[in-house]
Each structure stands twice: as structure tokens, then as C-alpha cells.
TrEMBL record:
Originating species: Rhodobacter calidifons
Protein name per its UniProtKB record: Chromosomal replication initiator protein DnaA
Subunit structure: Oligomerizes as a right-handed, spiral filament on DNA at oriC.
UniProt-listed InterPro entries: AAA+_ATPase, Chromosome_initiator_DnaA, Chromosome_initiator_DnaA-like, Chromosome_initiator_DnaA_CS, DnaA_C, DnaA_dom, DnaA_N_dom, DnaA_N_sf
Gene that encodes the chain: dnaA
Entry keywords, A to Z: ATP-binding, Cytoplasm, DNA replication, DNA-binding, Lipid-binding, Nucleotide-binding
Source organism phylogeny: Bacteria, Pseudomonadati, Pseudomonadota, Alphaproteobacteria, Rhodobacterales
Amino acid sequence: MTNETWGQVREELIKRVGKHNYATWIEPLKLSQLKNGVARFEVPTIFFGDWVQRNYGDHIRSQLNSAGTPVDRLEFAVGAGSAPATPRVAGQGSQPARPRVPDEELPGAPLDARFTFDTFVVGKPNELAHAAARRVAEGGPVTFNPLFLYGGVGLGKTHLMHAIAHDLQARRPELRVLYLSAEQFMYRFVQALRDRQVMGFKELFRSVDVLMVDDVQFISGKDSTQEEFFHTFNALVDANKQIVISADRAPGEIKDLEDRIKSRLQCGLVVDLHPTDYELRLGILQQKVDYYRSQYRGLVLADGVLEFLAHRITTNVRVLEGALTRLFAFASLVGREITLDLAQDCLADILRSSDRKLTIEEIQRKVAEHYNVRLSDLIGPKRLRTIARPRQVAMYLAKQLTPRSLPEIGRRFGGRDHTTIMHGVRKIEELMQTDSQLADDLQLLRRLLQG
Ligand SMILES: Nc1ncnc2c1ncn2[C@@H]1O[C@H](COP(=O)(O)OP(=O)(O)OP(=O)(O)O)[C@@H](O)[C@H]1O
């Protein structure tokens, strides 16, 4: 492949990954060899190569393939004598790097250009989270630290975090904003341990002005990562730097997370993204339709289709968006108006799974997982309190969340009598009045089960 072709491929990659990520991660790559389906690039550091491989490897491969250069593997080698690249990092703008923390080492994850405040639809369920995110994005004095956003799958946590980062970049380009997932934090930490670069790691994370960590529940049970996270967190809070955290549940509900971390996370503002309501879903659909209309000109959307979708697809926004995307793509392919019939045909599987009823088995599995007991014990005959109580919780939830009768539930709990189930249900109803831990457990389990 000629350098000219690589030039064209790079042009395409700008469109795929966005200008900013391109300048940070793709531009510094030097294609050094292309042979037998392997493309080899020179990179400034091992970390840089790893990062590009993980985050952009697929894009690069597919663009090379579409340019007529079959490649099935990418390799990255630290370029001997190659001038160190100085890619830009999120929020750095034209400011010089701080001493001892080269910018290319700042391991921020790519931001999705579509996740901005402009595209975030605000409704009752998310208005508080949105207002708090806006407040942080103004970049003024730190008033609550951290901002802790939590909520079920696909309710907009990542969207809000990216929106904060985009806004801060535009408003305060001198700030060093670092966004990454908790998994990436761990990956980076483990790598630093392996390469004996822990000091560098510490300096790097302490050099940012705003740290955003997504899906923090990921570090539960990972002791040394938690320890490091705790120190990073404290150092930044002490230096009055803003931290934004997201998780799928409230800090107190994250299992296997050290108490001192839980209490630190609770110190700031903890806000909940509630499950969407009908109005919010309709609002989101209307906004997406405006966008699709510009893409698929001439497509007609019949009255009532959006209302139908907002009514029927209640699980999460990602599924809702996916349904609309499919509907527009399908209608444009077959050149038909988007009617209710078309929606029902084309989205049959999504509609079916949205209708899906919760099963007793799912409830048992979730409860066993939550209380850390074996599924077989939960169903089996053991009478130990540590098992009997979770079992009663599962019975209670089965009664509340499924239409099954007491005898049916009894059968699924190892053939127990319906009076045993009734006793279990009553016991939990009684205990939840006085035992706040149990009430919290039930609330969390309900949320996890109902999405
Ligand atoms: N209020 C909203 N307005 C517009 N789009 C939204 C809204 N809420 C969610 N979305 C969209 O739904 C999709 C899922 O959102 P996002 O990735 O932020 O969810 P999440 O809460 O981080 O989920 P997960 O737990 O899976 O990480 C995204 O495409 C996002 O843009």
C-alpha cells in the first residue's frame, strides 16, 4: 500500500472516530510495514499502541480492507528514534503539558460526539441528574464532590458524562478533563503495576482537573484497584478537583466495595436517573425522528407510531433508539410509509421481548446472586437463617412481580406447600416495616429485575 492510500484511509478515519480522537490517537501512527495481512505501526509508547488496538483496531482494519488492502492483524511497536508524538488530550486545547505527565499518557476514553446536552431530552425522571450535570459542566467552583450519577441500564448516565466533558472542553479548554470507565482505570493500573510505573500512574491521575469514571461498580471486589481508586479520589478531592462518577446503583448498594469508599462516594451529590416515563420516551423518539428525517428524506411517518413505540418499549432508551433506527432503515429499504403495521412487523422481536414476563427462575437467580448464596440452596431444604431469609425474599418477589399463584410458586421452590410460601411472603412484608436494610435490598432487587 502506498502512503497515499494510507492518507485516504486516515481521511476516512477522521469521519469515523471524530477529529479530536483522530488527532490524539490516529495521526501519530506511522505505518512502517504491511505484509501478509499484517499492518505494523510505530507508536510512541506501549500504552499508546494498546489503547489504539483496543479502541480503534476494528475501525482501522475495516478501513484498510475497504481501501482494497486486506489486513487481518494490526501490530504496534514503539518506534526507535521516532520523534515522540504530541497528540492532544481531552480539554488540553493549546495549553502546554504539565511537567512529567506527557499528554499522550493521559488515557481518556473516546467521547461520543452525539452525547451532548443538546441531544439529551429532559423529563421528570432525569431532571435532577441533568441539572447537576449542567452545574458541573459550567466549570465554576466545586460545590459538590463527587457528583454520583446512578440508574439502570441505558438510562443516559454515559450520555450525561460525555455531555459534561464536551461542555467543559468548549468552555474551559485549559482544563484537563479525563473520562474513562472503571474497567479502563483498572486496566491502566494493572499495566502500571506490571511495568513498575505506579508512580507515573499516580502522577498522571493526580494531574487532571476533572476526573470522570463510568460504571464504577466494576471495581467492586477488586481490592488493589479499589485501594488505588480511593487514594486518587482523595488526592483530587483534597486538591479541590471535580470528580464525576456513574454506577448502576447507589454507592451504599454496591457490594464488595469498601465502606470507606462508599462513604466517600456518598459525600457529594448522589442523584438517581429514574426509569423513563411515557412522556420522556416520546420526547426522545421525537428528537430522534427529527434527526432521521434529515437523513432519510421523503419518508412518511404515520400518526400514532411514535406513541405506540413509547408505550410498548419501556425497558431502556438504547432499545428504544435501536427500534427507531431499524424502522427507518427498513422503511427506506422497502420504500414504504412507516405505519403501525410496518412497525409491528419489523419490530416483532423487540416488541415480544419488551412484553416478556419476568420468570420465577430469574427472580431466584438474582436473589441468590445478591445474597451470595447458591441457587440450589435457595431452592433446597436448608433452614439456616442465611439461606432461609433470601429464600423468603425470593418468594415475596415472585408473588409481587409475577402473576403466578402460591401453589405454582411453591412448586418452583423445591415443591413446597403453598402455606409455606404464604408464610414467607407475610414474614417479609412484616420485616420490611422495621428493617431498613431489607427494605433497601428489596428496592434494589425490584429495580434490577424490572430494568
Ligand atoms: N434523556 C435522553 N435523551 C436522549 N437520549 C438518551 C437519553 N437517555 C438515554 N439516551 C440514549 O440512550 C442510549 C443509552 O444511554 P447511555 O449509554 O448513556 O446509558 P447508560 O445509562 O450509560 O447505560 P449503561 O448502564 O448500559 O452504561 C444512548 O444512545 C443515549 O444517547
